[in-house]
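Hi support team,

I'm opening this ticket because the web form for multi-chain structure prediction keeps timing out on my end. I have pasted the exact lines I submitted so you can reproduce it. The total is 955 residues across two entries, so I didn't expect it to be a heavy job. Is there a limit I'm missing, or should I split the entries? Thanks in advance, R.K.
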Amino acid sequence: MTFKAKTLFKAGIASLLLSTAAFAQEETIKVGVLHSLSGTMAISETTLKDVMLMLIDEQNKKGGINGKMLEAVVVDPASDWPLFAEKARELIEANDVDVVFGCWTSVSRKSVLPVFEELNSILFYPVQYEGEESQRNVFYTGAAPNQQAIPAVDYLMAEEGVERWVLAGTDYVYPRTTNKILEAYLIGKGVAPEDIMINYTPFGHSDWQTIVSDIKTFGSAGKKTAVVSTINGDANVPFYKELGNQGVSAEDIPVVAFSVGEEELAGLDTTPLVGHLAAWNYFMSVDTPENAEFIETWQTFIGSEERVTNDPMEAHYIGFNMWVKAVEAAGTTEADAVIDALPGIEVPNLTGGTSVMLANHHITKPVLVGEIQDDGQFDVVWETEGLVEGDAWSDFLPESAVLTSDWVELKCGNYNTETKTCGGASN
Amino acid sequence: MFFLRACLLALLLPLFAGPASAQTPEFDALVTSLPEGSYSARGAVVGAIALTGDPRAEAILTALLDGTLGVIEATGQVVTLTPAPADALTGAPVPEAEAERIRVNNGLRRDIRAALGILTLSDPDPAKRLAAADAAFRAPDAAQYDLLDAAFQREEDPAVKSRLAEARAVAILDGDFPDAEKREAIDVIADRGDADAQRILTPFAASADPDIAEAATAALGSIEQSRMLWGYAQNIWYGLSLGSVLLLAAIGLAITFGVMGVINMAHGELVMLGAYTTYAVQETIRQNAPGLFDWSLLIAAPLAFLVAGAVGVAIERGIVRHLYGRALETLLATWGVSLILQQSVRSIFGPNNREVGNPSWMSGSFDVGQMTVTWNRLWILIFALAVFAVLLFVMKRTAVGLQMRAVTQNRPMAASMGIRTNWVDALTFGLGAGIAGLAGVALSQIDNVSPNLGQSYIVDSFMVVVFGGAGNIWGTLAGAFSLGIVNKFLEPYAGAVLAKIIVLVAIILFIQKRPRGLFAVKGRAVEG
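Hello R.K., no limit was hit. The queue was backed up. Here is the completed structure from your submission:
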């Protein structure tokens, strides 16, 4: 298609859409929701879609934003990574949304990045991830490694006296990068390389006998041992079952997980898991008025007292409120204005503090370590003193320690502080 | 005898005496300092509380362990929260209870258990004394030596006594004791010969004292050797266990694909249906007859067979029968069926994992020498072999089995002998599907019950059947176990990901050499 034809075509679609929209109702602000509703990731992402619908609904009850009502546009990328890019394009080009909340896995985020850059739209990404990225059009409301992995390891070192580490993960980009950062961090803390065991398993791994027995052997070297698990969702159940069956209790070898939350535990008999740990920025059990209200609204919206809340849901809550404030401040939903308005926006989080959007498009969060209880909830045993600022580029990897991200002053996601240039590494 | 009893009584007395006796200000100060400081500092406080021998110690520590001990922020008063809020030291009721629960973590919990162990070392119940010795063994503390030694001296039960000897030994190793005693302690620990012994002794191999270092190194050497030998046994067991899972998943496919030649991509989803049947049965039992929970799997097995079998027959009658002889179309159509089944389960039960509990007889493990055998894996192995035996019996010894084999070997001839081939086709497919349902019951015990359950087994199942030789169920058995064992021997060296790849490549090469698998079926059936 030639350029001219393309523009004509686009204009045609746009006018068509405009006319139908005008015909249907007054002008609304459209919010895209890009979460898988089918396929393997549906287990985690369906809930996030529901949370978005709830937040939009609540905002409309308050009269929308700047007098305009919000309208959710939900699409299903079906856990299929290339389809994420297609659906993102569809949301922005065909449905003309002003902002998109979505993605879960890193690979799905990576696949939509070029789309958001090209069409200059906004994505809020609510899940903890491996860092090493900062993109102008993306706002990362989940935890960066320094907001989850590093504090969790600090806790185990200081409070449980752990000296030997098993880094177990599913074989893909998030665990690999996180473990690389953790390994560098631990060695920097004086842990000998032979006291670190790294193990990767395929997606959905279900036969954990050998690995659990390896962990037991590794743990019998006379030093307190812990497992840092970046094992992905589904493989966790058989892993914990095997731990329980082989008699590895949390008091002997605690497992701290970065991907196990209330939602994952909901399908699980938690008796063998009691005492194992998870590190997040939010737990459903946190006792604050904001959280109580959020849980009540959620359970009323979804129509079940059984449904739990979890960390990525809070991330969407924070991200959505930040976006609302930014649009109110900018007085428009136009992407460039909102992107410029977002850094510095402050909204309350659900754990009793306020989160701020930073210049690097990450946010400040508290870090909590919780122990699994027999009712599938977490009991907070430790938390950071104040809020931790999300760091896009890890300080513990030599190649990214020199990089910094600042979209306010420097207008750059990967500014090299040594060479004083933008574009030190790929985003 | 009387004297002994009086002694025991004197020892037990502090435990049962009322709060009137022996109250020390030191104890009060320790309890008040419980809510403060880091977990490790509080662990030390817990130990000190136990060593005071104060009669209130056990109740307070138990409350702390159960999470029913609280503190009133404003005054620092320590209170027990159940049944009604009361001062932990005096027992006086506290009217306004704005108490915050005192947090406990794993490390502290271990310390509390050890401290409670010290308090229950003289319990009349040998099982409790054994647990106490165990707790002391797991959290070595030289300060407990005197108590452990006293308990060891008066203990009469041999099992408890030997455990106490080990607990005393770790306490000796933890503290400043003469070298001769330490060497003796190392011998005691070395006799255990297991992972715990290895864990305790490893630091002493680098001891500054050459005698101790030598004793520890020698002990570690022999432990290492026996563990290595047991390691092989363990690998074989893991292999058998993985093999049994593969066998269960593949055996139904050995019928539909192996015997009938239908490429059934929905096989995994039939397994999933079996798992969801188990879930439904367990839910019903939980709500209506919790007492039957241990029987849930036995009840679920025939139901899962029927459900999956019925769906199988429906697939055969509705789709597959129109496509016999058109492999590609069958493949695509059944793949479509698999997606439909997945999404309908997702719509009915939701996308989340469903909780399927292990009955008590399938939980936990037992030790064979240095090897840990988990009950659920053992039962699954037995179940897989039982299903295989029944299937073999049906195929070889019953009229139905005879008809099935006849139809697949020579359809026109079987038809002219008066066999209703259509009916037999449906029945054979239903049998394969039903067995997949049975596999689902077993897999629900070790894997997630989610709509994706089947996907993770379909490739493995085809691999086993192709490797074993299509059309031969003995081949499936051999294929499943050899793949399982090879995989488990590779895993410790190559890692789980690489092990899978190596096995897959090996199978591809093997199929190049022997296209019909391990046990090729000879004769006319192959040409047909």
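A quick check on our side: Residues 3-24 of chain A form the longest helix (22 residues). Let us know if the file doesn't open in your viewer.
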